[in-house]
Design a protein that fits this description.
This protein is mainly alpha-helical. The chain has one domain (3-134). It has 7 helices and 2 strands. The protein has helices at residues 15-27, 31-42, 45-50, 54-57, 67-83, 108-116, 120-123, and strands spanning 3-5, 8-10. A hairpin with a 2-residue loop joins strand 1 and strand 2. It is globular, with a radius of gyration of 15 Å.
Length: 143
Amino acid sequence: MATKEASTWRWWPTVSEIAESMRPYIASGKSSGALRLLLDGLNYLPDAVEHDDLDRVLAPPTSTGDERWDTLLAAVTRIRLHHLDLPTPAWTFKPPLPKMWWPHAYTKAKAINDFNNTPVELRRVGIFLDKKGFEPWRTPGAN
């Protein structure tokens, strides 16, 4: 998602760009691709911090076209910002989904594992993913 704005190259996506890139995967039922784009995109937040671009990157995103994925994007952004010891924008706080959701559980055993190992930010909104999927996060200054 490298773009050129005002003669400055950047390789980190905005959260809106992440949401936009996820849309076709969500629409075609390819949850693995959508999840990978979400996690990979948010893994560049330290670069935005390092280049003083966090406000633009964290502007409220456009919708992914699916409330569940919008909620997941907000909650994972919140998790990532907590790992970086940064404040979270208001848009990252979403109400719980009307029905619990496992975006990536293909077996009953995986669903149980995800349920037991979900970060609090996701559990609060009724989304279940194993916290191991969020590690290792890149840290500021790491290549």
